[in-house]
Amino acid sequence: MKSRLLTIILAVTLFLLAILSLFVGVMDINLASLFSGDAKQWEIFIVSRLPRLLAILCTGVGMSVAGLIMQQLCMNKFVSPTTGATISSAQLGILLALLFMPGSTLWGRAMFAFATAILGTWLFVWFIQRVKFKDVVMVPLVGIMFGNVIGGITNFLAYKFEMTQALSSWLVGHFSLVIKGRYEIVYLVVPLVIIAFIFANHFNIVGMGKDFSKNLGVNYNVILFMGLTIAAVITASVVVVVGAISYIGLIVPNVVAMFKGDKIRGTLVDTALFGAIFVLVCDMIGRVVIAPYELPIELIVGILGSILFIGLLLYRLKNGRKAIRLTGSGTTGCGNSSSHLDGGNQT
Prior knowledge:
Number of helices: 14
Number of strands: 0
Strand content: under 5%
Mean pLDDT: 83
Distance between the termini: 26 Å
CATH topology: ABC transporter involved in vitamin B12 uptake, BtuC
Helix content: 55-70%
Order of helices and strands: HHHHHHHHHHHHHH
């Protein structure tokens, strides 16, 4: 029961915050008006507030799980959709859709984003696998540089074909345009997260290396590319609807790993719950700070995420590889009782 205490706390917190978020916004909504059948209040609730909440939950869950998968497969706690060029690749796909299919629907743009996000993530992992000397810091730096190259290509094409303004909606993440009929693509997160949970043990094995996977009868390349594809599709589906939201996939899995270890099956639910809470809190802050105006969630995530990440680094410097234990004994993660940021030694 003690080991599940964090999960219960996160679930209850998420439920309460989700209810509260439905009544936070420019237009006042109250339970009395809803129960009395006020048509205008119900329209705002169904068309705007509920879709926004569902999009926030899918975004938080999806980006956090995508980061967790990439960190495990790459054996590096600093890898995420942001530092693995996945977000930049998805933005390039959206631009290509706007250039070659200007009349495309949201699903048409999503197809381009899926293809480029998958390709960009695969290229990043293929490249770092061929770097002979790599450490915990160099891998994400390579990903950031690769992402900047892709971003540079995207910006060049946008300026050349005068598509900068059209692309701007996907460069900064925000939920202000999420309404009924324009966000349902993020529902893809749900089946993909379920698949990730089913294959969680396989991802753990692949994260231990190619030889280890072969000895246990796991097809290393198939599981690796399946995991990367899941992470890329989740990221692209979020970018198409919401825009780029950085560092959720980097911060959330690391914070949860401090409490629960590194084993995906043991941390995936907690990572998803905490990711949803983190995004929901950031969105609510953005709605009330300068009300009736709204700050982009990308800005709030950047500020709070930076604070959390600095605190995480300071904790690591002070306590080394010690995790925050929820139980008095026992093991967590892949056979050890600590979570880590150096990602290269998972035994």
